[in-house]
Amino acid sequence: MITLRAEKIMEINIQDLMIPGDKVAHVQLGNNLEHALLVLTRTGYTAIPVLDSSYKLHGLVGTNMIIDAIMGLERIEAERLEEIKVSEVMNLDIPRLKITDSAAKGLEIVVDHPFVCVVSEEGYFEGIFTRREILKQLDRHVKRLNKG
């Protein structure tokens, strides 16, 4: 059985492990669903942050939300993609991490979510904390332990 010294990993804060906001695809509140779907498709993501013009985080929009919004009774109403705004379909109830939070808090959240948005104390979007980043850190830690 492997015994890990979790203190080392858990001392790291979110800022050290997050992907900075300028490298994260996002949309703005006023964008239409056509634009959001284009961004999602081009990046290969299933959900992206929704920001206002001052880069405050408001929620997430995902492919499923967009498809649900244009699903008619008998067909997909693709023409509605231009009419509907991201703000009308986005999810407002999302987990968030503050940039000063610990990796331990982030780990608890990414158990249920592939990524979590990171915000400043004022609510400005700083980046995302991903399950992948914490697993990479854990992998490095395990490899160091195995060498020593």
UniProtKB/TrEMBL annotation:
Name listed for the protein in its UniProt record: Cyclic-di-AMP-binding protein CbpB
SUPFAM superfamilies according to UniProt: CBS-domain pair
Swiss-Prot/TrEMBL keywords: CBS domain
Domain CBS: 18-79
Organism per entry: Metabacillus sediminis
Gene3D superfamilies noted in UniProt: CBS-domain (3.10.580.10)
Xref: PROSITE patterns: CBS
